[in-house]
Design goal:
single chain; alpha/beta; six-stranded parallel beta sheet; 9 strands; about 40% helix
Length: about 290
């Protein structure tokens, strides 16, 4: 399938603490003309300075982001403001990923071995302070509320990261009540999240909420393509986006991953029209260019 008009809203970029396949100039050279654009993600640093250090590529969209791990001060509204001021497009704000309490409880190391292969030794999870977005009473913390306010005030896209599905549900519901209407539920099928499909369908009733399905879940985390297709069919393509979640040193390029992903999904009964909705139209809605 032709993915040249796809916008991939989940691509990992280096330099990072562990090896990555591309830096910004490398990924521009490799992917310009093969897909329409991408959002660049880093677990450790804001990506806007990396993007702004290069000349803006013609006819190729680059979206910046921040990921609210310990390295950026955790639930830090100031890093959102600082990055958003550098961008003419909405940036993505990922809630904690490798430092979320949910992730660290379910993973032996901060960086899972399947992300990096041999030769890199990560810190054990028990050595790291996990970030929770809820307090002991099960309500959002004051820090989380301040982050949501910063997301709204700076016209950002909220992505739920690697928090638990229960936390993600509460986060999305609270964001909607605050008037935030650009929301990505980050790979809800991921084993460390495993959001029930009934909850997924409930959340997408909110305006601007999209469920993310990406190639990494199939390639790296070995989620059967049949299961991914089933979840898309259950909630509807109008409520989903497709991304690659690529950038690992031995992974295919995002455009190659999306091409393979769409071919596999098409074989499972997802139509080309539905694939274009998830890969072209819905990402454009999120970044405000449709």
């Amino acid at each position: 399938m032709d993915v040249r008009n796809f916008i991939d809203l989940h691509v990992h970029i280096g330099p990072e603490v562990f090896p990555r396949k591309f830096t910004v100039p490398q990924i521009i050279n490799a992917e310009k003309g093969k897909i329409k654009g991408m959002a660049l993600k880093n677990h450790f640093y804001p990506t806007l300075p990396l993007i702004k250090s290069e000349p803006e590529p013609e006819d190729f969209i680059l979206i910046g982001s921040v990921t609210l791990n310990n390295y950026l001060g955790g639930l830090n509204p100031d890093v959102i403001y600082g990055s958003a001021q550098l961008s003419k497009r909405p940036i993505i704000v990922w809630f904690p990923t490798i430092n979320s309490e949910n992730f660290l409880k379910r993973s032996s190391h901060e960086i899972p071995s399947e992300w990096v292969g041999k030769g890199f030794v990560s810190r054990p999870s028990h050595e790291i302070r996990g970030i929770s977005i809820v307090n002991k009473k099960g309500v959002l913390t004051d820090e989380t509320i301040q982050v949501l306010k910063a997301i709204k005030e700076n016209n950002c896209i909220l992505a739920t990261g690697h928090v638990s599905w229960q936390e993600a549900k509460l986060l999305v519901e609270s964001a909607l009540k605050m008037g935030i209407n650009k929301i990505i539920v980050t790979h809800p099928i991921y084993q460390l999240i495993d959001m029930p499909v009934e909850i997924q369908k409930e959340l997408v009733q909110g305006k601007g909420v999209y469920l993310e399905h990406n190639f990494a879940m199939y390639l790296i985390d070995k989620v059967p393509i049949e299961k991914i297709a089933e979840q898309i069919k259950y909630v509807g393509a109008d409520n989903c986006i497709l991304s690659s979640d690529m950038g690992q040193i031995n992974s295919p390029a995002p455009s190659e991953a999306l091409k393979k992903f769409t071919e596999l999904l098409n074989q499972e009964g997802i139509t080309e029209e539905e694939l274009k909705i998830m890969g072209e139209q819905n990402p454009r809605k999120l970044i405000g260019e449709l």
